[in-house]
Specification:
The protein has about 525 residues and is α/β, with parallel strands linked by helices. The structure holds zinc ion.
Length: about 525
């Protein structure tokens, strides 16, 4: 009797354990596939069964609400060839079901025999193809890749904000290959804007005396990268700091891209050299020459970033000290705003010099103006077409379900197009994305600064892409659980590097060398 009971219990437990391992096995496969996708789409269901083989005889359908041009169709065919070395017969048609969808939304449906993409427009189709590229793997069991296979799935996604940006810093030692690689990866992760900020190394022809030389980044390289970005659906935005950070270098390095080698230009800067001297008309003239030259080199994009952060020594020279600081800064910002507005271009600026550090409303947040500078009401006198870039890297709102970033809310409520900017913190980036999409702010921008290699490079790209598209965050803080996702990031970086014709070890991966970062901090 007792023996029989134990026997029955054993069978029951065996079945239970088998069922549990079956469920966790299926879930594990789904997680393996989901980890391939960066950003993770809002819906991704994997159906099991035989994988779809992407060969020349494969059946592929592309349905869009808006008609595709012949050029768009041919581009889609080229992408199949370049991603998967396949030329399937693609059947293009129009559909009504994406009529009310977001301009960039897409759906993917893959069965054993057919692959179908639905989108509102060409942009959505391109996003779908990026998702499929991440999901595909080479057919198993051969020495070399003969074809690609894709798991059966149903995927749906749409961005949570219109402006999805990445801010990339370029140092005198940054190589052109690295810049292009980061721009291409931004496009692969479905960002649509990239800001390039040169730290004292913009190769100016009109004012070469203000920049260190970058031996590996020429004017023609920049022009070419701007063209590549445009082709990939990314607008490349130039940045020239017109206020603080005039040294053209990191605060940490102590270098000055103008004064170290050309000290005769000292009157153009405040005595420490960190901020431009706003009362000197020659400073304005020099900045204008470089800014316009840069904007033209970038292909005259719709935005120009004028910096304006962390002007620690603002108005410390004998002339600026006598001036009305608010008027001085207002006239300076308006000069550049008007210069670009004439060409239909919007200027972007960092927010922190418009808020006072001592103001209790900004406790725990970023504000750099001093009360004696009288800048706290300057924002009221600035036109609302200025895009305010609100960088809040450490703030964590208390209400995680309806997060609010007070500095960002302040500028949005004042009527400015407000971009929230994140850095390395996973939690901060995730909550910021929720704040931006939940309150219909202008958008979001990840920033790299000196964290532009190694693990921080991974984190910033993965976290910001997830926040901008509104899918599940990548959980990069979860130690070993995030290894597979991080390895997939490296695979994606390899794919874009191969697209570029990588042929040197230094061009591969997240760092130039295997073990030594090129910039220690
Ligand atoms: Zn001055």
């Amino acid at each position: 009797m007792i023996e029989g009971f134990f026997k029955r219990m054993s069978v029951f437990l065996f079945v239970l354990c088998g069922l549990a391992s079956f469920l966790s096995g299926a879930e594990a496969i789904d997680n393996i596939l989901a980890d391939k996708l960066i950003p993770l789409p809002k819906k991704a269901v994997f159906n099991g069964g035989e994988w779809f083989k992407l060969s020349d005889s494969a059946q592929v359908g592309v349905k869009t609400f808006l008609n595709l041009s012949e050029e768009d169709k041919s581009r889609i065919g080229d992408i199949f060839e370049s991603y998967w070395d396949a030329e399937p017969g693609i059947e293009f048609s129009t559909c009504e079901d994406m009529k009310d969808a977001d301009e960039e939304a897409y759906k993917v449906s893959v069965s054993e025999k057919a692959l179908e993409i639905s989108a509102k427009s060409h942009a959505g189709v391109l996003h779908a193809l990026k998702t499929l590229r991440q999901l595909a793997e080479p057919m198993r069991g051969t020495l070399k890749t003969e074809a690609y296979i894709i798991p059966q799935c149903a995927i749906e996604d749409s961005p949570s904000m219109k402006f999805r940006g990445m801010h990339i810093t370029i140092m005198p030692e940054t190589k052109s290959f690295e810049v292009e690689k980061k721009v291409r990866l931004a496009a692969y992760y479905k960002f649509n804007y990239v800001v390039l900020e040169f730290w004292g190394c913009y190769p100016s022809k009109v004012r070469p005396e203000f920049n260190f030389e970058n031996p590996d980044l020429s004017r023609s390289d920049i022009k070419r990268i701007a063209g590549v970005a445009k082709e990939l659906g990314v607008c490349l935005i130039p940045q020239m700091t017109v206020f603080g950070h005039a040294s053209g270098s990191m605060f940490r390095s102590g270098k000055h891209s103008a004064l170290d080698l050309n000290p005769e230009f000292a009157p153009l800067f405040e005595p420490t050299g960190w901020t431009w001297c706003l009362s000197n008309p020659h400073a304005k003239e020099a900045i204008k020459d470089m800014a316009l030259e840069m904007w033209e080199l970038f292909g005259k994009p719709e935005y120009f970033h004028i910096g304006c952060d962390e002007a620690y020594d603002f108005a410390t020279c004998s002339e600026c000290a006598k001036a009305d600081k608010k008027e001085l800064l207002k006239n300076h910002i308006m000069y550049f705003r008007d210069l670009f507005a004439k060409a239909g271009v919007k200027v972007m600026m960092w927010h922190d010099m418009l808020l006072e550090k001592e103001d209790p409303r900004w406790k725990g947040m970023t504000a750099s103006a001093k009360p004696e500078q009288g800048l706290k009401d300057l924002y009221k006198e600035l036109p609302k077409d200025i895009v305010v870039c609100c960088w809040e890297y450490a703030y964590l709102p208390k209400d995680e379900n309806a997060p609010v970033f007070p500095t960002g809310k302040f500028f949005a409520d004042a009527g400015f197009n407000t971009l929230m900017c994140s850095w390395t913190s996973a939690k901060n980036t995730d909550l910021m994305g929720k704040f931006v999409s939940g309150n219909s702010l202008y958008g979001m921008m990840g920033t790299m600064w000196y964290n532009d290699f190694g693990e921080p490079f991974q984190k910033i790209y993965m976290q910001t892409a997830a926040a901008a598209w509104g899918g599940k965050p990548p959980r990069l803080e979860e130690g070993q659980k995030s290894f597979l996702r991080r390895l997939n990031f490296d695979r994606h970086l390899r794919q874009v590097s191969i697209d570029m014709g990588m042929d040197k070890m230094e061009q591969s991966g997240r760092t130039e060398n295997q073990s030594v970062p090129r910039f220690l901090y």
